[in-house]
Amino acid sequence: MSRKLRNSLLASAALLAFGVTSFAQETTTTTTTTMKKDVVVNSDGSYSVIEYPVNKEVTVNLLPSTAIAGGKGVARIARSANGTKVYFDVNGVPSDMSNVYAYAIDPSGTPTLLGPINFANGVGKAEFTTPMNQFMLVLSPEQNLSSWDNSATYAFRSDAPQGFAIVPRRITSTTKAVAGATEVGSAYDVPMLGVPKFNGKTTEVRVKFSGDLAGLDGKAYLKPEGGKTSIKMRFGDMRKVPTNKRFILWASGSDGTFTKIGQVVNSGSRDEAEIRGETAMNDFGLLLTLEDVEVDRPTSRTWSAFTVNP
Questions:
Q1: What are the residues whose beta carbons fall under 8 Å from the beta carbon of 231, sequence distance 6 or more?
Q2: Would you state the pLDDT for residue 6?
């Protein structure tokens, strides 16, 4: 990356940031019949996270920044049960551009580095694999991009392909954490289980999976005792879970805090799995998220909350 091009990109980002008062203020709300709920989308199109379907290749256009307005690019995304392949094909950039860094941006705005794309004579091609299934793509001169908003420096970013609903952006906060729990925004609505009513007895709660995980069996056994509640979660038919994904069990407090109880990873070599843990919360709800990497707070969609068996 030449100094001249890098300075040009930074200058463009500064002008863009000056023209927008804040990320949160410049949004519009649209309703899609596919998702059946409100979807918040940046009015300038700088947020374009979608969920990629399994066993279907999706092509997205890569939109250039004003610094390289003549650049063109596309990315082909092919998701399977073993992960997601991303193929980049970019051309028309300045001849002195040497490389940029490809990132997948998740719904919380967190970038995951896919790798560098090297250029020769204005053309760059690359192929990467990621376990993620919900993301937008950004090509940036920054090797350590830590967050994404409409003031970040970039060379290209993905457009939202026609026919796909934008995944709602998650707004999270890590302030006022209590006893290892993390405050999370209202995207997670988890009902309390009424643990004090268990009267110290072991109680079974169930989770019913839907979508790609329909048919996966899950049960949890809770036992309040000595000021804490022990939790044992059992899974059946783990082959339905994408390989190398983390199934993380969280306890949700009434104040909006979340505590990680434990996790299992589908290594592809077992049908059943179990999570064991405990919490000192007086009452709580339970939820499962399917994560790509090790996390200390929920970041993916809620696969299902738990209900007490009658």
A1: 220, 221, 222, 249, 251, 261, 275, 276, 277, 278, 279, 286
A2: 57
Query: What sign does the dihedral 293-42-35-49 (CA atoms) show?
Result: negative
Tell me the DSSP string of 225-289. Answer: ETTEEEEEEEEE-GGGSPTT-EEEEEEE-TTSEEEEEEEEE--SS-S-EEEEEEE--SS-EEEEE
Structure tokens at 186: 């209202």
The dihedral built from the CA positions of residue 9, 93, 116 and 76, taken in this order, carries a sign that is positive
Do residues 233 and 249 make contact, with C-beta atoms less than 8 angstroms apart?
Answer: yes
Q: Under 8 Å CB-to-CB from 169, ≥6 apart: which residues? A: 40, 47, 49, 107, 108, 109
Q: Which residues contact 63 (CB under 8 A, 6 or more apart)?
A: 45, 156, 157, 158, 159
| Side-chain half-sphere exposure of 67, counting CA atoms within 13 A | 24
Strand 99-105 versus strand 134-140 pairing type: antiparallel
d(CA 123, CA 5): 15
Three-class SS of residue 4?
Answer: helix
Residue type, 221: Y
287 HSE (CA, 13 A, CB side): 25
pLDDT > 90: what percent of the chain? 21
> Helix (H, G, I), strand (E, B), or coil: what is residue 11?
helix
Give pLDDT tens digits for 46-67. Answer: 788 999 999 999 999 999 988 8
- Cβ atoms 108, 23 nearer than 8 A: no
Distances in Å between the alpha carbon of 267 and those of 99, 112, 220? Answer: 34, 22, 21
Return d(Cα 223, Cα 195) in angstroms, integer.
9
Domains defined for the chain, CATH in brackets? 3-158 (2.60.40), 182-308 (2.60.40)
